[in-house]
Every structure is written in structure tokens, then in C-alpha cells.
Amino acid sequence: MHVKSSRESFGFSMNRQCDILSGLMAEARPITIDEACSLRYLLFGNLKKTFTSGWTEQSFHFRSVPPYGFFQKRPGPCGVLAAVQAFVIYELLYGPSRIKADSGIIKLTQNEKRDALARALTSILWQAGDGTNALVAIRSRRIVLNAPPTTDILEPDGILEYVKLIYFECKVCLLDYYRNFINQVQDLILQRSREQRIISLQVRRFI
Fold first, then answer.
1. What number of CA atoms fall less than 13 Å from residue 204's CA on the CB side?
2. Cα 105 from Cα 92, distance rounded (Å)
3. DSSP 3-state of 190
4. Would you give the DSSP letter of residue 162?
5. Residues 179 and 20: beta-carbon distance below 8 Å
6. Residue 131: partners with Cβ closer than 8 Å, 6 or more residues away
7. Residues 163 and 37 sit within 8 Å (Cβ to Cβ)
8. Is the pTM of this model over 0.90?
9. What would you report as the CA-atom Rg of the chain, rounded to the nearest whole angstrom?
10. Cα–Cα dist 206/189, whole Å
């Protein structure tokens, strides 16, 4: 009987040379006009609708009760949140790093939630790439979409024209990328939250 290694069970091809650091060092390329149109059509069903504040202000932020649930700020990205939420719960219950029966899903640590989210996003994107590759969209600090100035196919929305894409051919690298990315983002959010509380306390002292 052949017992799969951890890399094989997670979709790693043993005959393909893979550098784990490649996930962190992968270069991003600007999104094309065709990809931008396809993405908007996938999310909204047409090219006229665009991202509202419900999308731009949303993140994968866990609630305190229940600790495995996402907090949705405004209507809009319900479908995306529901899909990721389902995969997060699956990872917590049945994934490689599933929680222990004695601790229960109600007593989740921050690291357990982060790892479940990283695995959930990895599984979703890897399935979208037919189990062979994945594309990760990240936001650039400047406009990167190279669209003709006279085009009326896709109107600017403040989101898609800033998108860059990172291509992955290794699921382990994709997971490693998300683990580091999620840690950085959530740490930054926590840092900003602490700074806001400090500023709020300082302001109250002068009122």
C-alpha cells in the first residue's frame, strides 16, 4: 500500500521541481483587459456593474461569536464570502490541520483560523485552475491595466485597473504564499486597530 506524503496529499507533483520560496518571490504581472472583463462578468454578470463600498470595505475578518464566521459589513460580496466560509469550516472540521475534538470549534485560536483561511483560499483557487495552476490577484499602488484611452469596453472602477496577477503551478507554494500573506495583512489590521485605540484615548483626554 502506498502512503502519500504530505506534499502528495496536498496536490504536489513529485516529478516537478518546486521551490517553496518561489511562492514568496513570484513576480506579478498586470491584468489584461480581457481578464478584467472576464473577472467583472464573473462577479456581476455584466460589464456595467462595478464594485460598491460593500466590496471595497470587505475583508475576511472573523467574528468573535461564532469565531469561525466572517463578519460582513455591507450587502454585496455575499456569494464570495459564503463560498470561502464553507471551505474554512471544512478545513476546521476535516482538513489536515483540523481542530482537536476536545477543544471544539468554539475555542479557536488566531493561528487556527488563519491556517484554515489560507487552506480554504488555496483549495478554491486550485480547483478553479483545474488542479494544475492558480492565479492570485493583488492590488498595486498604481494603475497597471494597459487599456486604450478610447476604449469603452470597461469603464474604470478604481479596482480592476490596479490589479496584478501572480501565477502558481505548485499548490504547496500557493499555500505558503497565502499563509505569509494572511499573517502580514491581519497583523497590519491589528496594528492599525491598536493605533486607532491609542489615538482615541489621547483625544478623550483633551476633551
1. 6
2. 7
3. helix
4. G
5. no
6. 11
7. no
8. no
9. 20
10. 26
Distance CA 180, CA 118 (A): 9
Long-range contacts of 8-16 (CB under 8 A, 24+ apart): 9/96, 10/96, 10/171, 10/172, 10/175, 11/126, 11/131, 11/171, 11/172, 12/170, 12/171, 12/172, 13/170, 16/169, 16/170
Q: How far apart are CA 157 and CA 207, in angstroms?
A: 40
- What does each C-alpha distance from 158 to 51, 60, 81, 189 come to in angstroms? 8, 20, 21, 22
Only one residue has cell 496577477, namely 165
The larger pLDDT score, comparing residue 1 to residue 60, is at: 60
Per-residue pLDDT tens over the stretch 105-142: 667 888 888 899 999 999 999 999 999 999 999 888 89
* CA atoms lying within 13 Å on the CB side of residue 149: 0
Which of 185, 195, 188, 138 has the alpha carbon at shortest distance from 165? Answer: 138
> Distance of alpha carbon 94 from its chain centroid, rounded?
20
Tally of CB atoms within 10 A around 52: 14
Cβ neighbour number for residue 105 with a 10 Å cutoff: 15
- Cβ-in-10-Å burial (0-12, 13-18, 19+) of 141 comes to exposed
Cell digits of residue 156: 474604470
